[in-house]
Amino acid sequence: MLNLPNTLIALLAAAGSVYAQLPRPLINYPLGLSPVFDEGFFAGTVAPAATIVQWAPGKAPQACVNELAWNNCLSGRAVVYNVTYADCPTPWIMCRCDNADLSIYQMTNFFGRMPVHLRSTVRHVIATHGEGCSAYAITGPDDGDIVMQGNCNTQSVWLHETGHQLDARGLGTGVGFSTSPTFINALWNDTCVADDYGNTAPWEEFAQMTVVSQSHTIYGYIQQQQYPGCFNSQLNALETTFKTSHLTYGGTCHTRIPATPTVNAVWKRGRIDRRGGKRVGPCKFDHLVGGHKH
Ligand SMILES: [Zn+2]
After folding, report:
1. For the segment 156-182, what is each residue's pLDDT rounded down to a tens digit?
2. Ligand 1 center to 131 CA (angstroms)
3. Where are the domains of the chain?
4. Of 69, 86, 111, 143, which residue has the fewest beta carbons closer than 10 angstroms?
5. Residue 283 — pLDDT band, cuts 50, 70, 90?
6. What is the pLDDT of residue 9?
7. How many angstroms does the Cα of residue 204 sit away from the middle of ligand 1?
8. In what side-by-side order are the strands of the sheet with 145-150?
9. Alpha-carbon distance 196 to 214, whole Å?
């Protein structure tokens, strides 16, 4: 008969519970974040002036080729742009399939409405065609891309995906913040998660809390909580770590992830070698409220 001391049993239980803390019992935003926060982002942010220069056809960054091919964009339909914002001399290289639901002007606008230091956690910005809106982030140490699949025309979705990059890269240690003791303990201290999607994984909750924290940074208060204060430990952990460094507006870029090598934008359907690291998502978004076109 195995007779472990109680303390050892408790330790084993604690170790096993690191990823077993979700779902949390309460949901602060039952309809998701978009109906609560997107109007405020639209009213309270502006993108810096930007110049958009389209590449000649035939070439694209390797990461764009990988993701466009993966998303069933036909070879030859990649459109690539250098997008240079007034607050950073180094352009972001953005890529679309030519049937993507988002225009390059929308991509430039939604991405540009985020603080430059938050934008700097992203390497390439990619958009493809899709039904509704889903999105994912590629967060391996040699990656850093965000991919919008469909009509993702709300700021909360852009903040969520960029939040995955902040999670992966913000500490600069190669360790994700959402699985660090700081965030896991905060999650455990709180009685709620942001929304149902945040209840699916700590990294999804972190991405949703990035949306909340960005709104908090802009407005100084938290809108429409069902259970006021119920996620304050997470909010404090995120803001203590990242508010000054990534969520505050102003300044200029000082660290950027180098673009992937330029290659021929030609691929065989179904034959793409999709190298790279961990993909987070696809993150599914419902109840999106916004829809402003640019
Ligand atoms: Zn996500």
Report:
1. 999 999 999 999 999 988 889 999 999
2. 17
3. 23-284
4. 86
5. confident
6. 40
7. 5
8. 50-54, 78-85, 92-97, 125-128, 145-150, 133-138, 279-284
9. 19
